[in-house]
C-alpha cells in the first residue's frame, strides 16, 4: 500500500511517497480503507523532530483518518464492516490502509462528509475539553489565540454556542471575515490594550511560542490559562515567572492533551460534536482538499498560515 513517510527531520520536502506491506487486523483491531487523512499542526512538529519522545525519522505521520472498515480481528463485531468511521491513530494516518483498536472508532453520520468529519475531529475535541477546563459561565470573557486555526476556530464556535463573550486578535482579512460570520465581534490589538477593564476570565492558547508570557497580563484575578498546543513552538523557559509575579491574583495555568482523556469519553464527546455539526450548531470548515500524493504541498500550505479550517489529504 502507499504511505507518506518522514524520511528525515526538516522541511516539507522530507515527506516521501513510498510503499509498505499492507497491515492486518489482529485481536481487538479493525482494518480501515482510508478515504481521507487530516493534516494538522502536530504533523508539522513530527516532521521537524520537535515532538517529545520521537527522536528518529522514518515513520508515517498522521493522527486522524476517515474511512470504511474493511475487516475486523478477533473479538470485534463484524457489524463494523463497511461502516464509515473516524479514528484517531497513534501515528500512521498518512496511508491507504490503517489498523486501529476498536475503541478508537466513531461512526460518522451519513449527513457529514468525510472531509467535514476530519475538520472537526481532534481540533473540536481539544477545543471542547479546553473550554471545560476554563470553567467559564455564560457571559464571561474568553480570549482565543490562533482563532483562525483549526483548534482556535472551533474553540470560538463552541464558546459562542455556550454564550461566552469571545475576543480574538486582529487577523488576516480572510480569517477575520470568517470569524465575523461566526459571530465574533471583539478583535483586540494588544498594542492598544487599555488595561484592567478589558481583562479575561480565561485564555485558550493553541499557539504558545515566545509571546506567551505577555498574554498572562490579560487575565482577571482567578483567571484560567489553558495551553493546548504549540503551533508557534514552545514558550520561553522562564514564562512561568509571569504567573509568579501575579501570585496574589490566584491564576491557574493548565496544559491539555487528548492523551489524558479515556477512549470512551472521546467517543462520546466526538459523537456529540458530529451531531452538533449535522444540526447546524457548529460549522466544519475545510480549507483545502489535496490528493494524497501532494502531502508536501499540504504541509507548506498549513505552515503558510493563510488557511482557515482543515487541510485534508484525499486518497
Automatic annotation (TrEMBL):
The keyword RNA-binding does not apply. It comes from Danxiaibacter flavus. Residues 10-313 form the Enoyl reductase (ER) domain. Keywords: NADP, Oxidoreductase. This is Zinc-binding dehydrogenase. InterPro entries: ADH-like_N, ER, GroES-like_sf, NAD(P)-bd_dom_sf. It comes from the Bacteria. Gene3D superfamilies: Medium-chain alcohol dehydrogenases, catalytic domain, NAD(P)-binding Rossmann-like Domain. Pfam families: ADH_N, ADH_zinc_N_2.
Amino acid at each position: 500500500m502507499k504511505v507518506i513517510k518522514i524520511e528525515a527531520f526538516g522541511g516539507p520536502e522530507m515527506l516521501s511517497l513510498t510503499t509498505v506491506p499492507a497491515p492486518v487486523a489482529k485481536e481487538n483491531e479493525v482494518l480501515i480503507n482510508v478515504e481521507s487523512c487530516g493534516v494538522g499542526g502536530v504533523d508539522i512538529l513530527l516532521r521537524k523532530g520537535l515532538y517529545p519522545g520521537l527522536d528518529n525519522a522514518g515513520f508515517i505521520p498522521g493522527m486522524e483518518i476517515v474511512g470504511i472498515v474493511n475487516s475486523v480481528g478477533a473479538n470485534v463485531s463484524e457489524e463494523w464492516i463497511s461502516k464509515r468511521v473516524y479514528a484517531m491513530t497513534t501515528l500512521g494516518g498518512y496511508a491507504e490502509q490503517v489498523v486501529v483498536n476498536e475503541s478508537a472508532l466513531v461512526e460518522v453520520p451519513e449527513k457529514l462528509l468525510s472531509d467535514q468529519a476530519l475538520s472537526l475531529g481532534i481540533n473540536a475535541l481539544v477545543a471542547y475539553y479546553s473550554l471545560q477546563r476554563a470553567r467559564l459561565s455564560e457571559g464571561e470573557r474568553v480570549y482565543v489565540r490562533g482563532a483562525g486555526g483549526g483548534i482556535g476556530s472551533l474553540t470560538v464556535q463552541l464558546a459562542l454556542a455556550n454564550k461566552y463573550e469571545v475576543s480574538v486578535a486582529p487577523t488576516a482579512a480572510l480569517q477575520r471575515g470568517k470569524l465575523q460570520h461566526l459571530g465574533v465581534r471583539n478583535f483586540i490589538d494588544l498594542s492598544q490594550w487599555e488595561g484592567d477593564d478589558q481583562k479575561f476570565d480565561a485564555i485558550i492558547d493553541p499557539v504558545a511560542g515566545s509571546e506567551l508570557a505577555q498574554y498572562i497580563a490579560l487575565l482577571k484575578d482567578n483567571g484560567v490559562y489553558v495551553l493546548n498546543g504549540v503551533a508557534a513552538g514552545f514558550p520561553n523557559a522562564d514564562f512561568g515567572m509571569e504567573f509568579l509575579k501575579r501570585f496574589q491574583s490566584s491564576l491557574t495555568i493548565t496544559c491539555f492533551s487528548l492523551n489524558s482523556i479515556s477512549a470512551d469519553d472521546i467517543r462520546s464527546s466526538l459523537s456529540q460534536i458530529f451531531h452538533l455539526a449535522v444540526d447546524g450548531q457548529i460549522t466544519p470548515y475545510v480549507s483545502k482538499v489535496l490528493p494524497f500524493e501532494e502531502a508536501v504541498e499540504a504541509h507548506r500550505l498549513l505552515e503558510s498560515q493563510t488557511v482557515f479550517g482543515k487541510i485534508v489529504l484525499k486518497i
